[in-house]
Amino acid sequence: MNDKLDTKERKELPDSVFGLPEIREYPMPDAAHVRAAEAYFRYCPEELKPTLARAILRFANEYGVDVGSPTVREYADM
Fold it and tell me: What pLDDT, in 10s, does the model give residues 38-63?
């Protein structure tokens, strides 16, 4: 899987692979998508950033991705 999902692929994903499952945003079914979520983190609404940051770190750990963003790590600690 590459870092671009088509509509059909995205609809088939379970809620559990989204960084924000309640709104089905920031899918992270693989390492490429974890890196994409980290890159697009700054576009996340402020009030949802702590939740997304924790999800990014959880999926990064699962897929062996090194999260280099100090911002993501700071929000995860909130």
Answer: 999 999 999 999 999 999 999 999 99
Residue 17 tokens read as 């692979």
Q: Which long-range CB contacts under 8 A does 28-34 form with residues at least 24 apart?
A: 28/55, 28/56, 28/59, 29/1, 30/1, 30/63, 31/63, 31/64, 31/65, 32/1, 32/2, 32/3, 33/1, 33/3, 33/5, 33/59, 34/59, 34/60, 34/63, 34/65, 34/67
Residue 12: helix, strand or coil by DSSP? helix
Q: Dihedrals φ, ψ of 19, to 5°?
A: -65, -30
In this prediction the pTM is 0.92
Angle of helix 49-63 relative to helix 31-39, nearest 10 degrees, comes to 150
